[in-house]
UniProtKB/TrEMBL annotation:
GO terms for biological process: DNA transposition. This is Transposase. Gene3D superfamilies: Homeodomain-like. Keywords: Coiled coil. It comes from Deminuibacter soli. Pfam families: HTH_Tnp_1. Residues 66-93 form a coiled coil. The keyword Coiled coil applies. InterPro entries: Homeodomain-like_sf (IPR009057), Transposase_8 (IPR002514). GO terms for molecular function: DNA binding; transposase activity.
């Protein structure tokens, strides 16, 4: 024997939803109390908050941090900016020196760069025996 009974579905008017959200936003009620009063789940209340709230919109992330964390983040951002500036200066220096080597090669007719294919000098071996 199968039980057949109809489940009654409750539909809350928009006015009721807005008043519940307003009570939560003003601090007169909490999500848990609203759930208990209306006999609904927390998911439903949070859906109402996302839909009708002026302050809490879906997709927004609110970052809560201590002042020391904010200060630390600002200092780290400043340090990053300083390091990026130093990197830019060094890159300009490398580009300048590379161009100078190219110009020197054109003027003197031979490559001014040190060639790494030749073995290192053995000058250090002579000082070991002394």
């Amino acid at each position: 024997m199968a039980k057949t009974h109809l489940v009654t579905r409750r539909v809350f008017s928009e006015e009721v939803r807005r008043s519940a959200v307003k009570a939560i936003e003003s601090g007169k009620s909490s999500v848990a109390i609203t759930c208990h009063n209306y006999g609904i789940s927390t998911t439903t209340v949070y859906r109402w908050l996302n839909k009708y709230s002026r302050h809490l919109q879906s997709g927004q992330t609110i970052v809560i941090q201590m002042n020391s964390e904010a200060t630390k983040n600002q200092e780290l951002q400043k340090r990053i900016h300083e390091l990026e500036a130093a990197l830019g200066r060094k890159q300009m220096e490398v580009d300048f020196l590379t161009k100078m080597i190219e110009i020197g090669k054109d003027e003197f007719g031979f490559d001014l760069k040190k060639k790494l294919s030749t073995p290192p000098s053995s000058g250090s071996d002579q000082t070991k025996g002394s």
